[in-house]
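Weekly modeling sync, notes
Attendees: AB, CL, MP (scribe)

Item 1: holo prediction request
CL wants a bound-state model with flavin-adenine dinucleotide before deciding which constructs to order. AB pointed out that an apo prediction alone won't tell us much about the pocket. Agreed to run with the ligand included and paste results into these notes for async review.

Input as submitted:
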Amino acid sequence: MPESKLNVILLRYTPNPEEMVSQAAKLCYSPASVDELKKQVASKDQANFIEKLIDMRHLSPIEHIIFTFGVEGISRACSHQIVRHRLASYSQQSQRYVGQHSKKTGGFDFVVPPSIEKIGKKKWFVEKMKILQEWYDELVEMLGNGGESAFEDARFLLPNAAETKIIITMNARELLHFFRVRCCNRAQWEIRAMAIEMLRLVKKVSPHIFKDAGPGCVNSKCPEGKMTCGKMDEVREKFKKLS
Ligand SMILES: Cc1cc2nc3c(=O)[nH]c(=O)nc-3n(C[C@H](O)[C@H](O)[C@H](O)COP(=O)(O)OP(=O)(O)OC[C@H]3O[C@@H](n4cnc5c(N)ncnc54)[C@H](O)[C@@H]3O)c2cc1C
């Protein structure tokens, strides 16, 4: 039952995403046929057009491009927050089908919050995880020690720290929203770290759509009101440099 670390992989995305967006947007303003538009868009650099589109909030064209991420090394506490975002698709490792018995699979992996390391209590925390593992193993055995019927109820003893894996698909419009709320200093540290990593990856393949992506304060006034972290200049600088 080792400690887990965040790993985010961009598995797939719409090929030539910015060309696709330009084509969809230009179709709104052009009498040309779909085929003509496709050729026009492919033959010309679309960077300025895309940036203008994002600035004027004509955002439906960016719904045509999607990005699929594989994420592992996150806690169930984090995944619970991710799946609250409704305009997305998810496939998550099941605690019902994938047993966590220490003798069979080595037990459950877990995430240690940095705050616990900071106060020097990591050893204490890991000991508690071991106790939960013992209780889980005991309950799996009491429930018949076999398959999903034991795992589905034994998992009630697993902590929010238990590691999970999830595949996430979002379109670019939802991603901009997701980054706005989850890259913010007000978001919980783990989902924030994951969102920043996702942003770093999509910026590489779609630099103009995600040019000013990040928390709300990156390209406007901080939307958090009284709850602001007050570090807007620092945050803007950080997201400008993100690569
Ligand atoms: C800092 C922070 C703290 C939070 N704290 C809590 C908490 O204490 N408790 C809690 O329960 N949740 C909490 N949440 C989760 C939050 O309430 C939302 O569930 C989460 O952000 C996902 O919803 P969303 O509005 O961001 O939009 P998404 O589900 O990502 O959808 C994107 C957008 O589509 C539109 N949309 C989607 N579905 C609907 C709909 N049914 N009706 C109308 N418009 C829709 C909205 O404009 C929405 O913003 C927190 C989130 C953050 C960022």
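Recorded for review: The chain has two domains: 7-91+164-215, 112-160.
Action items: CL to compare against the apo run; MP to circulate these notes.
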